[in-house]
Design a protein that fits this description.
With 317 residues, the protein is of the alpha/beta class. It has 2 domains: 220 residues, P-loop containing nucleotide triphosphate hydrolases (Rossmann fold), CATH 3.40.50; 66 residues, Alpha-L RNA-binding motif (Alpha-Beta Plaits, 2-Layer Sandwich). It has 10 helices and 14 strands. Strands 6-7-8-3-9-10 form a 6-stranded mixed sheet, sandwiched between helices. It has a 4-stranded antiparallel sheet with strand order 2-1-4-5. A 4-stranded antiparallel sheet has the order 12-13-11-14. Helix 3 crosses helix 4. It is globular. The C terminus is likely disordered. This is ABC transporter ATP-binding protein. GO terms for molecular function: ATP binding. InterPro entries: AAA+_ATPase, ABC_transporter-like_ATP-bd, ABC_transporter-like_CS, ABC_transporter_ATP-binding, P-loop_NTPase. Keywords: ATP-binding, Nucleotide-binding, Transport.
Length: 317
């Protein structure tokens, strides 16, 4: 028997009362067990789409199925399969983490004894068990974010949706959350992530959709989409000081960032050995190399034509 997709959306449309058409016939499919990214600039329709799937926004037209359950026909059953982690921290700061999780479970009819067992399990997974009886307002930013995920997991959702979960947090917290989310997904939960951070999507997700102006403009495996880029960029660290003039290599562009660093752009089909040989012939020895650019960022710009990119991996002020 063929497995049902974790999420299937067909011709989803949403027009708000003020006439804004936020979704214009969106269709997408997320397979069970996937880690899936939904990307797009501000106003593209991401939040509306997630709002409809999590039953916080009413659709205008279309069909949404969660593991085969029609959201419109059987909302309660569909919502039992979904966990949502919103962007905003929305728990009571004067409650203890254990109580936050147990009370949340109670909203879904989970008996208190069972909720206590689950809460201990989820807090331990989130590395928060030692904070179970502390006031939540005393938790660090990263701990609060992990608590949000632990709370969503209390209902044992098969599909976990995270709406900009790392927005506004510093790099250390963000990378700690990446580890948590990878563990959640590895344990069998399907994860959908909306994010402004393209590095985040490239690091975590296997498949993605890019939405712009209410339409899905690209969807598919991360590797397949990135392969569409025909240019790669590298930063080369060299031994000693660079000469005043760098060698000319047909098809490649070399620029000196400083006395010890070369910025290299080259076609994907070009062999790096050719570049290294040309540099070596000029007495330039490459000590180390790293990828220069975020390839997903390049893809996003090409597809949307939007020069105002989602934020890079830097902490907000």
């Amino acid at each position: 028997m063929q497995k049902q997709p974790a999420l299937e959306i067909r011709d989803l449309r949403k027009t708000y009362d003020n006439g804004v058409e936020a979704l214009k016939g969106v269709s997408m499919r997320v397979e069970e067990g996937d880690f899936y990214a939904l990307l797009g600039p501000n106003g593209a329709g991401k939040s509306t789409l997630i709002g409809i799937v999590s039953s916080l926004v009413n659709k205008s037209e279309g069909e949404v199925r969660v593991f085969g359950v029609d959201l419109h026909a059987d909302r309660s059953q569909a919502m039992r399969l979904v966990g949502l982690v919103p962007q905003e921290i929305n728990f009571n700061m004067f409650e203890q983490p254990l109580d936050i999780l147990v009370n949340y479970a109670g909203f879904y009819g989970i008996p208190r004894p069972e909720a206590l067992v689950r809460a201990e399990e989820e807090l331990k997974k989130a590395q928060l068990w030692d904070k179970a009886r502390k006031m939540s307002r005393t938790l660090s930013g990263g701990m609060k974010r992990r608590l949000m995920i632990a709370r969503a997991m209390m209902t044992r959702p098969k599909l976990l949706i995270l709406d900009e979960p790392t927005a506004g947090v510093d790099i250390e917290i963000r990378r700690g959350m990446w580890k948590t989310l990878k563990e959640v997904n590895a344990a069998g939960t399907t994860v959908i992530l909306t994010t402004h951070y393209l590095e985040e999507a490239e690091s975590l997700c296997r498949n993605l959709a890019i939405i712009d102006h209410g339409r899905i403009i690209e969807e598919g495996p991360m590797k397949t989409l990135l392969a569409k880029l025909d240019v790669e960029g590298f930063v080369l660290d060299v031994e000693g000081r660079l000469p005043a003039t760098l060698p000319a290599i047909e098809g490649a562009t070399l620029l000196a960032e400083d006395d010890h660093t070369i910025d290299l752009e080259m076609p994907r089909e070009m062999e790096l050995n050719r570049v290294f040989a040309a540099l070596d012939a000029d007495g330039i020895k490459v000590r180390s190399m790293r990828t220069k650019s975020n390839r997903l960022e390049e893809l996003f710009v090409r597809l949307t034509g939007n020069p105002e990119l989602p934020e890079k991996d830097v902490p907000n002020e």
